[in-house]
Write a structure and sequence with these properties.
Layout (H helix, E strand, L loop, with lengths): L1 H22 L1 H19 L12 E2 L1 H4 L1 E8 L9 H19 L2 E8 L3 E7 L4 H9 L4 E6 L3 H13 L5 H11 E7 L3 E8 L6 E7 L1 H13 L5 E5 L2 E4 L11 E4 L5 H15 L4 E9 L1 H30 L1 H23 L3 E2 L1 H30 L4 H33 L2 H30 L15
Parallel strand pairs: 1-13
Antiparallel strand pairs: 2-4, 2-12, 3-4, 5-6, 5-9, 7-8, 8-11, 9-10
Length: 458
């Protein structure tokens, strides 16, 4: 049995070392730097760094602001309210992303509420001011000297004399305001070209906008007329003919999803849907750090108490289950980094809960083993029988946990979803560690000597 499990054990050891280096990359890389400085010249070998991918922390751990806005939908028809809310959500999300907030959460709650979570921001008031502005759409015509401005910018870009601000300034100079804006737009919707079937966006302007648009298109035949939303160009079509009907079509290489998104953005700029801040909760970075520290302590204490219980009650199998639990922890934390999972206090609570669940399957297996040993069966037979007879119970308990996690993730808010996600990940990985890793480790200890010392197996 030892020979049969040697390869699996070696793979497990090597994989665990790499998982540990990935999870604790900061400390490992510091050790690599020390070793390279100490021995690289003599050994003529430089050790590589592990990828430094940090854990994604949520609002309650990193610090930041939780905002709740209410939209005034009194002037919007019932059939258009869902689209209006999605349009507002899209505008706010783009504004927050431009502001530089890390992993913002912007979601529609109920019929007229928008929840925004801004983790790790330094200027809350500026973010609130940016979010609260009314979406603004504007039509701009190409500047007479646009070609010269582009050539000058390209020359500076080639010389490395430009940056993001210079590119934004160029956009402002390339297009000039026409006076046609969102208040002249009645509706934008997704349509398809009757001949080619290509997705397009149709625009319907009010009476004043139709007259103004006719003058603009007449003056700019063969030139670009850009559509700006919140100061940024979202479409720059070339005018093909004078348009006096108040209807226009924006064509381009749009997929149906892209065209629908553009129509939603245009509608969000046109609809008079003001938003009002009704709730603000700010969490300081120091409080978030305290939460992380307390959570780590809770996890460590939980691991220690579980280890003591398992070793006292089950002896060698209990110690083996703790080794499997350590491997389980490394795998789970690696998954959290790779996905990445945004860790909140609720998510960490789910992880700590799964520490107990990870050894729950082992308890079922070891209890079956003790029953077989009490009947005088051999250790090897008792181990295999313990895994075989406990499998159905283990399978059913994990399936019900996964079903619960799925329901929680599908029908609840972000805080509970974080708990459900870590719970579901933990259930899947614990099933693997209990049935594969624990079994391999336990079988590696079985030999002729084990029959003489059955008491070590509980």
């Amino acid at each position: 049995m030892i020979k049969n499990n040697t390869t699996l054990i070696m793979i497990l050891v090597i994989a665990s070392v790499f998982l540990f280096a990935f999870v604790y990359s900061e400390g490992v890389n510091q050790g690599v730097d020390w070793a390279n400085a100490k021995f690289s010249e003599k050994a003529k070998l430089t050790l590589p760094h592990m990828p430094d991918k940090p854990f994604q922390l949520g609002l309650d751990l990193l610090g930041g602001t939780h905002l709740v806005y209410e939209a005034d939908l009194s002037k919007v028809e019932s059939a258009d309210r869902a689209d209006a809310m999605e349009g507002i959500r899209d505008v706010i999300e783009r504004r927050v992303n431009f502001f530089g907030v890390s992993e913002p959460v912007v979601q529609v709650s109920a019929d007229d509420r928008i929840i925004i979570e801004l983790a790790g921001i330094s200027d809350v008031n500026q973010a609130i001011s940016m979010i609260g502005e009314t979406p603004f759409i504007e039509f701009k015509e190409e500047a007479p000297d646009a070609q010269r401005l582009v050539e000058e910018f390209q020359a500076k870009q080639a010389a490395g004399q430009t940056d993001v601000l210079a590119e934004i300034e160029l956009q402002d100079k390339l297009f000039l305001s026409t006076g046609l804006n969102g208040r002249h737009l009645k509706r934008a919707q997704l349509v398809f070209d009757q001949q080619t079937g290509v997705a397009q966006v149709s625009l319907l302007l009010n009476e004043e906008g139709a007259v103004l648009f006719g003058e603009i298109t007449k003056k700019n035949l063969g030139k670009r007329v850009a559509i700006f939303l919140d100061g940024f160009p979202i479409s720059t079509p070339v005018v093909q003919s004078e348009i006096t009907s108040g209807e226009a079509v924006i064509s381009g290489n749009f997929s149906p999803q892209e065209a629908k998104l553009l129509a939603t953005r245009l509608n969000s700029g046109a609809l008079p849907v003001p938003i009002h801040l009704i709730s603000q909760q700010t969490i300081g970075a120091s409080l978030g750090a305290e939460s992380v520290s307390a959570s780590l302590k809770a996890g460590l204490y939980g691991l220690v108490f579980v280890a003591i219980f398992m070793i006292i009650l089950y002896r060698l199998p209990g110690a083996v289950s703790i080794l499997a639990l350590l491997v389980y922890t490394l795998i789970v934390l690696t998954v959290y980094k790779l996905m990445p999972v945004t860790l909140t206090l609720a998510g960490i609570a789910g992880f700590i809960l799964t520490l107990g669940m990870a050894v729950d399957a082992n308890v079922l297996i070891f209890a079956r083993m003790k029953e077989e040993l009490a009947l005088g069966k051999s250790v090897a037979f008792s181990v295999n029988e313990g895994f075989r007879r406990a499998w159905l119970s283990i399978r059913d308990s994990h399936v019900t946990t996964l079903l619960s996690a799925f329901v929680l993730y599908s029908f609840t808010t972000s805080i509970v979803r974080g708990f459900a996600l870590t719970l579901g990940i933990g259930a899947i990985i614990s099933l693997f560690t209990a049935t594969i890793i624990t079994r391999a480790l336990l079988l590696s200890f079985i030999g002729k000597w084990s029959e003489k010392y059955k008491w070590i197996f509980g």
